[in-house]
Write a structure and sequence with these properties.
By secondary structure, the chain is an alpha+beta fold. It has four helices and eight strands, in the order ββββββααββαα. Strands 1-2 form a two-stranded antiparallel sheet. β5 and β6 form a beta hairpin.
Length: about 140
């Protein structure tokens, strides 16, 4: 067992998770909480804090050098900021995120937050996304 200085208790054997980016097994305490739930059943980031921090540096650099055009549309769903505003969403912030490959840390460009979330929920797995599309197209 390893002592966790942040929680003040030993880490149990099942308290480890593999980072999607660096592929290292780390204590769950090294992963950021994305959604807090009752009973310590929180949803954790798929990448460790160190990989998250590195990704933020890369995305910040991209944002600084690549401003979103006023009439920009998501390359996947083709929705614009105006489309989101008209639907009552994203009044005070941009609906677009910097998409990047977590393994290679290469920026792919701007996509809307819902498309970015969908890819994340599908674990950035093209085969799974294809299966999902095939499933949706079934009659």
């Amino acid at each position: 067992m390893q002592y966790d200085f942040f929680r003040g208790e030993p880490e149990e054997e099942g308290d480890f998770k593999v980072c999607y980016a660096c592929e290292v097994s780390l204590p769950k305490s090294k992963f950021r909480v994305l959604v807090r739930r009752h009973g310590n059943r929180h949803t954790l980031s798929s990448t460790c804090g160190a990989c998250d921090d590195l990704a933020e540096v890369i995305k910040k650099e991209f944002r600084r050098n690549n401003k979103i055009p006023e009439d920009y549309a998501c390359p996947l769903c083709k929705k614009t900021h105006l489309n989101y505003k008209n639907s009552g969403r994203y009044w005070t912030q941009s609906p677009f995120s910097v998409d990047h490959c977590q393994k290679t840390r290469v920026v792919r460009g701007w996509i809307c937050n819902p498309c970015n979330s969908a890819m994340g929920l599908a674990q950035h797995n093209p085969d799974l996304l294809k299966k999902m599309a095939n499933y949706l197209e079934r009659k």
